[in-house]
Amino acid sequence: MRPRLLIASIAIPTALAIGACSGSSDHGSMDMGDSTSASEAAPIAESADFNKVDVGFAQGMIPHHAQAVEMADMAIDSSTNTDVLDLARAIKGAQQPEIDQMTGWLVAWGQKVPEASGAHDMTGMDSMMMSGMMTDADMQRLEDSSGAAFDRLWLELMVLHHEGAVAMSEDEIAGGKSPEAVTLAGTIVEAQQAEIATMNKLIASMPS
């Protein structure tokens, strides 16, 4: 069994948090050292710049992306399939910067930033925003597989994961207020739909 690869905690630049103080007068700054749970956090304070849909999108997509990065690292560590490796590197290269971007928004908005490494612990957050997440059992199956079986399972699970991200992004496009968040959601839809098509072709070309 291969060891699980852990996603490093996201560092929040102090300068970003300071700059957020002048971004909105409708909400206070967030104490990142506070261990208050999501269910105990203050209600979301909307402003002219963002709404609760934007907040839910960022809070849900951060751990969602973090799990995709974890899965990408597993493929980079375990696969010898060139197509799978190319996809894994592309996914990691795109989604880690997006995690950092969404983290910055939440800090600027004075909202709770979820732990990226706690992808399965979303207590108090909308489960609908976690569409397509792998369970611990799914991740264990992936860890326990190897060779062509690993490649096929990785592709199948990543298709489901991407489909979830597309659904989450479409919700943001439909109801979000933040131009930056809506733009990112559109980018995610376009990129991940293309990757879904590529992965489905690879799956179809593999021996059953």
TrEMBL record:
Domain DUF305 stretches: 54-202
Under Pfam families, the record lists:
DUF305
InterPro entries in the cross-refs: DUF305_CopM-like, Ferritin-like
Q: What name does the UniProt record give this protein?
A: Unannotated protein
